[in-house]
Write a structure and sequence with these properties.
The chain is of the alpha+beta class. 34% of the residues lie in helices and 30% in strands. The longest helix is centred in the N-terminal third of the chain and has 19 residues.
Length: 779
């Protein structure tokens, strides 16, 4: 066998040779050969054996890597042998010597003098540095589970005749098996001294409850500047009493503050989850259980998700009587679906299509419909995800905001949250690659004007009727133009506005109407129309300017009957409903989110990743021990140092959205990064399509949306900070200042299903023309 052939075999079996070296060091080379070379030809086996024995031979040859070293070279002695290596070469020497049981062998010498091995080792080290630099702490959207460490700071004192001369003492911490009491001076007690403490009569605890505690220590709290005497539950305590205490702590943990350290962790999570939802492009649509199934109950809007979704009308079309059950059926099965809508122009006229992506694909309509909707620029697509709401989540929402369940029974029926997000940009510009006849569109895929009615819940800052308004079910009449009047039902009223429901829809658009409500002494008063829903026949009205007399008359009527109107204040009802729905939504936000803060170092701006336990938006990457590597999304490719031009552009506002594309090879799970432009417009798109058809690769497309924080605080943030200021002023000051440090929120959403469907339909994006190309074409 020629020398070149032997070298080729050695190169081919290099991993096997390195695996056999420890066996040779232990004089078990034959055992290793039998274990790993069962199907290797005999002549190849002999070459491998000889190479292993050669590499493990001791040598005294001096090593020098100055010819290719990238760092300053220094001289030193290793086992009496002179070395001239840089710091990378020295690290290679150390690791390779360990492989050869701390001996200087031929294998060690050849490795540290090999330029290719040096570059590979340097590249591996640089990659590890990049991964570590882009590693971000991850936090679950679920409430922090403190386990047996859970302890509350209740708002009642306890007392004992033997402790502090029977004075009542403030409880700083009450846990399952421990308790801490505050005092200005250190009490005169000794370790293991037993006290019988009397608890006051509070809901959840039996009347006259007394529990024995044993002193475990005394410490001085620098934050509160008070002494804390620590107790533990006495071993002789009745287990039934301990169970009652544990049940009370669990029940009160969301109604009362926790122990200071635990409350700090919980407050941080609450404030950061609020920021994630406040800036999120996802619109939560809450679904309620009814006798014959489910129906939409209410939608929660913020300034960001309303502008991103394209307005309330686009969310309303999702609740079409025909479409909504089909969407839910897909969501219950797949947890995610896409709804496509738009206007299709034909020779017979225009008609609106409203269907899911899977329905269009199964009817072989996806490619022509997307092409036609893009052609007339009417394409709109919503990404929908479903999350189940547990009973515990509803109970937490009631407890946190002190709401009485019987006063808001309709909220207790919420069973799921349907989150929807505008992803039309991912389908814009797509065109068919080949002409083919378009099948007939089934009637069920056409838009239905009949829609479910549901309430709209806005932030307090977005409430368009900021003045007090009250729910009243009074009969009235409206008159438009010269037509006769028609009966209406007045749903709510304020001094300068009202909401009515028509008995019949408007025959033509109206700008103003005359309203009469006898019980309110309103007769033929002109009102401007500020909102009208044809589906629900609901009209929102506003009193024109210079009508102070009418407004004053309505206010006088309210003040006269304030005892009745007090419980009908819609602002109060709306505020409590908003807070309840908000607590549900923050715990079920559907996509991964990265909170970013201001920092002089770019990579330190990525603070925390928030996601649900079932979230897979970061795939093909995953979190390990509460950290997640983000280099695959943001790091510059082929860079030797941790750099990110993408993050720089995002924080400077040059990029507001981008898609990151990876392919996972199924044969060996190898990850391949694809530049977005190559995937969209290059020949790589065809190769990916063919590999997907052959089931060789898995396509992973992650859409990153960048949202700059519009304000330092939201209505919910203000409420939480206000509550915090009453129980811990230093903690309030710290968190209040911290709110100004948040700059952006990055939302990572998997669009793999959407892009794979587009590839199967053979749709291809049309590359936008540059300014120079368009000028040359026009010339």
């Amino acid at each position: 066998m020629s020398a070149s052939t032997e070298q080729q075999i050695i190169k081919q079996y290099q991993p096997l040779i390195r695996a056999l070296i420890p066996y040779e060091q232990d004089n078990r080379l034959l055992e290793g050969l039998n274990k790993f070379t069962g199907r290797v030809p005999g002549n190849v086996r002999k070459i491998i054996k000889d190479e292993v024995m050669r590499l493990t031979c001791i040598t005294d040859a001096p090593a020098d890597n100055s010819a290719f070293a990238e760092f300053p070279v220094f001289k030193f002695s290793h086992f009496g042998v002179e070395m001239r290596l840089d710091k990378v070469g020295a690290r290679i020497l150390q690791t390779e010597s360990q492989l050869y049981q701390d001996r200087y062998t031929v294998g060690v010498f050849e490795t540290i003098t090999n330029s290719d091995f040096y570059q590979a080792h340097l590249k591996k080290e640089n990659y590890k540095k990049i991964v570590d630099a882009f590693t971000v702490e991850t936090q679950s959207l679920d409430d922090i589970h403190f386990g047996n460490d859970l302890a509350i700071a209740p708002n009642f004192p306890v007392s004992s005749l033997e402790f502090e001369k029977g004075k009542t003492c403030t409880i700083s911490s009450l846990g399952y098996k421990s308790m801490s009491l505050e005092s200005k001076r250190p009490p005169k007690v000794s370790a293991k001294e037993v006290f019988n403490f009397q608890f006051p009569e509070v809901p959840g605890l039996p009347k006259g409850m007394a529990i024995k505690y044993v002193v475990s220590g005394i410490k001085f709290n620098k934050q509160t500047e008070k002494y804390e005497t620590q107790f533990r539950l006495h071993p002789s305590t009745d287990p039934r009493l301990a169970k009652i205490l544990q049940k009370y702590i669990d029940m009160a943990s969301f109604q009362q503050p926790l122990q200071r350290e635990l409350e700090s962790e919980r407050a941080m999570q609450d404030l950061e989850r609020d920021r994630v939802l406040d800036n999120s492009p996802w619109v939560p649509l809450f679904i309620q259980k009814v006798d014959n199934g489910v129906k939409p109950q209410s939608a929660l809007f913020t300034a960001v998700n309303e502008s991103n979704s394209g307005g309330i009308a686009n969310i309303r079309q999702l609740t079409s009587m025909k479409l909504f059950p089909r969407v839910l059926k897909e969501l219950f099965k797949y947890k995610e679906t896409f709804v496509v809508s738009g206007v299709i122009e034909t020779k017979k006229g225009e008609f609106r299509i409203l269907a899911t992506l899977r329905e269009l694909e199964s009817a072989d309509l996806l490619a022509p419909v997307i092409h036609l909707l893009n052609k007339n620029e009417s394409l709109f697509c919503l990404q929908c995800r479903l999350s189940e709401v547990a009973r515990d989540d509803r109970q937490k929402a009631y407890a946190i905001h002190d709401l009485i369940q019987t006063d808001y029974e309709e909220l207790d029926g919420i069973s799921h949250i349907l989150f929807c997000k505008n992803v039309s940009a991912s389908l814009h510009g797509l065109a068919v690659t080949e002409r083919r006849p378009m099948p007939a569109i089934p009637e069920e895929l056409l838009e239905d004007t009949a829609q479910y009615s549901f309430s709209l819940v806005f932030d307090e800052d977005m409430n368009r009727r900021s003045e007090a308004r009250y729910i009243i079910d009074k009969e009235g009449a409206v008159k438009s133009g010269l037509l006769s009047s028609s009966p209406v039902l007045v749903k709510d009223i304020s001094s300068r506005g009202m909401r009515i429901v028509l008995s019949e829809p408007f025959s033509k658009p109206e700008k103003e109407i005359k309203v009469s409500v006898p019980e309110l002494k309103i007769k033929n008063q002109k009102y401007d129309i500020v909102g009208y829903s044809a589906a629900t026949r609901e009209v929102r009205l506003r009193l024109p300017s210079k009508r102070d007399a009418i407004a004053a008359g309505i206010l006088q009527f309210v003040h006269k009957n304030y005892a009745w109107f007090k419980n009908k204040d819609t602002n109060l009802l709306h505020r409590n409903t908003h807070r309840f729905l908000w607590e549900l939504a923050v715990r079920h936000h559907p996509s991964a989110s990265i909170l970013c803060i201001t920092n002089r170092y770019l990579l330190n701006r990525l603070k925390t990743v928030y996601q649900t336990p079932a979230c897979d938006d970061l795939y093909p990457f995953s979190s390990i021990e509460n950290v997640v590597p983000m280099h695959g999304f943001f790091a510059d490719k082929d860079a030797q140092k941790p750099k990110s031009k993408l993050l720089v552009d995002m924080f400077h506002g040059a990029v507001t959205g981008v898609s990151v594309v990876h392919c996972v090879r199924k044969s060996d799970n190898k990850l391949v990064y694809l530049p977005e432009t190559d995937f969209l417009y290059g020949t790589m798109r065809k190769h990916v399509h063919n590999h997907i058809q052959e089931d060789k690769v898995e396509l992973c497309v992650t859409k990153i949306d960048v949202v700059r924080c519009q304000s330092e605080s939201s209505p919910m943030t203000k409420k939480r900070l206000a509550q915090l200021s009453r129980i811990d002023k230093p903690m309030y000051d710290r968190f209040n200042v911290m709110q100004s440090s948040y700059s952006h929120v990055l939302y990572l959403t998997s669009e793999s299903v959407l892009q794979q469907t587009v590839l199967r339909a053979r749709l291809r994006p049309v590359k936008p023309q540059t300014a120079k190309a368009s000028q040359a074409e026009s010339a």
